[in-house]
Amino acid sequence: MGTSDRQPLFEHFVITRYSAVFTNEQAPPQPAWLEYRLGFFVEACRASMSRQDPAVPFRWLVFFDDRCAPEFREEIEDLAAGVFEPIWTHDVFWSGVAKRAVGERATAPYVITTRLDSDDAVAKNYLAAIQDEFDSQDFLYVNFARGLQVVRGGAVYQLDYASNPFVSLIEKRSEGDVPFTIFGFGQHNHVRRMGPLREVVADPMWIQVIHGSNIGNEVRGRRISPHRYDHLFDVDLGYDHHPTAGRLLKDSARRWVDALRLGVRHPRVPHTWVLGRVDRIRGTRTKARLESSGVTSVKPRDVAQPAPAAPSQRTGRRCRARRRSGSG
Asked: In terms of DSSP H, where are the helices of 199-244?
C-alpha cells in the first residue's frame, strides 16, 4: 500500500475471531483445537487475504485468546508479519473488544468493517469490490450474496446467501465515539434491524469451508464445476475442478433430499435461500431498514453465541500435513 500526506476518506478493517472466547465461563481453546483450526486459517483465510490487490488499503485484525502456549503465539506472530495484526486478549469477544480495537485505530471520517471467519476465504478482488460500494454513506450494510461452499472431500457448491457471514458495514465516524462496526449487532442475518442493507449481485466473492467443527454451517448450495471461477480465487483447497456431468446430476438429486431434511431441522434456511435467489433476480439494490420496536437496544453481549465445537481428529489432517511440508 502506498503512502500519502492526504488523509483518506475511509479506513477499512477486516475483523476475524480466531480463538477469543464467547463468554466469561468459557475456557480458552485447547491446544489440539488451536492446531486443528490453524490449518484452515493458513490455507483458506490467510492465503486469500494475503492475495488481495496490494493497491487496496485495509487492516486485518485477528483476535486470539492470550491464554495459550508460547509456541503457538510465536507461530501466530510469524504468520502475521505483513499480513494481519494479532490482538491477544482474554476478554469476551462480544463485550466490544472488536469495536474498541477499531476505535483505537480509526482516524478517517468513515469506517468500513468486514466480517471474516477464520476458516473461510474470499475472492482476490473482494475488498476492492466492497470499497467500490462506498459513497460516503452514514450507515449502510453491504452484502455479496453469491458464494461457494467447499467440502473437504472436494465437492464445491454455489449458493446465494442473503445477509451472510461475510457482510460489511460502512459508517460515518463521530469524533470521540467508538464506531459501531460490523460486530455492533451480533446476528449477521438480521442486520436490517439496525440499518439499510445493500445486496450486491456479482460473481462468487467468498468460500465457506465445511468441516467437522464449523458452528451451524451445512452444505446448502447446488454442486457446480468450479473451474469457471478459478480466476477469482487464489487459494488451493484441494477441490475437484472438473466433476463429471454424471456426478453433478447424481449429487444434485441427493442435495434436494438433504435440503428438505435441513429445512425440517432449520426452518429459517429455506427462507434464507429464497431471499438470496430473489435478490439475485432483482439485481443489486439497497433494502431499507426493517422498522421493529426495541431492536436498537440490542447489544452484542445480549445475543447468545455458541461455544466452539470439539475438533474432529480426521478433518484438518491434510491441512496440517501440508503446512508442515511448507506447501500451499
From this structure: none
Please check the confidence at residue 2 and state whether its pLDDT lies above 50.
Answer: no
- Residue 15, C-alpha cell as written in the block: 475483523
Cell of 257: 433430499
Predicted TM-score (pTM) of this structure: 0.81
In sequence order, which residues have a C-beta less than 8 Å from that of residue 49 and are 6 or more positions away? 14, 60, 83, 84, 116, 122
Q: Specify the amino acid at residue 319.
A: C
CB atoms near residue 179 (< 10 Å): 24
The secondary structure element, H or E, covering residue 112 is strand 110-115
CA-to-CA distance for 318 and 326, rounded, in angstroms?
12
**Residues 98-124: what's their mean pLDDT?**
97
Indicate the helix (H) or strand (E) that contains 50. Answer: helix 47-50
Please check whether the domain covering 10-310 is classified as CATH 3.90.550: yes
Distance CA 32, CA 5 (A): 46
- Per domain, the residue ranges of the chain are 10-310
